[in-house]
Every structure is written in C-alpha cells, then in structure tokens.
Amino acid sequence: MALTRDFKETVKERVAREPAFAKAMLDEAATAFLNGEPDVARLVLRDLVNASVGFEALAAETSHPSKSLHRMLSERGNPSMDNLAVIFGAVGKQLGVSFEARAVEAS
Question: Does position 35 have pLDDT exceeding 70, yes or no?
C-alpha cells in the first residue's frame, strides 16, 4: 500500500483549511514572475487555481475558455501580461487579496 498522497488533493485540502497558505501560494507565483521565473510561476498559479477557484469558475470570471486557461498555465504556456493580470486579479478577488507594487532599492 502506498504511503503517499496525491499532490493536487493535498494542496486542495490545505488551501481549504488554511487561507493563509492559498495567499502565500499567490504571493509565490507573483514573486516568481517578477523574479524572472515564469515557468515556476505558471505552475504554482495552476496548482492554486485547481485548489481554489477551479478552471471553470475562472473561465466564467475572466471570459476566457477553460481550455485556454489550462494552456496558459501549463509548462509550455505563454500567457500575455494582460491575461496574467486578469488571472491574478480573479484569483486574488476569490482569496480576498489585493496587489500593491512598489519599487525597492537594491543593496
């Protein structure tokens, strides 16, 4: 008998149990994008969408077909910045998060 659990189910249960975890995942996705790691960011965002909003609800919120959203957030996805902004906005709204960008000086 396997002692491991399905990753998607584990993430989904933790997101449901701990809203702070979902917000941390959203923060991690945004940070990864800003730090030049779009591949990591898309995959984290995809896992968060699966665990929270769901692709069908995201499609309704963003007016983008769910298949297109799946492609955008896949390993080889290439979403435009406009589409990313819409996705981040919809997921943030679902989680009760607002975004603030600010410049910091490098030390």
Answer: yes
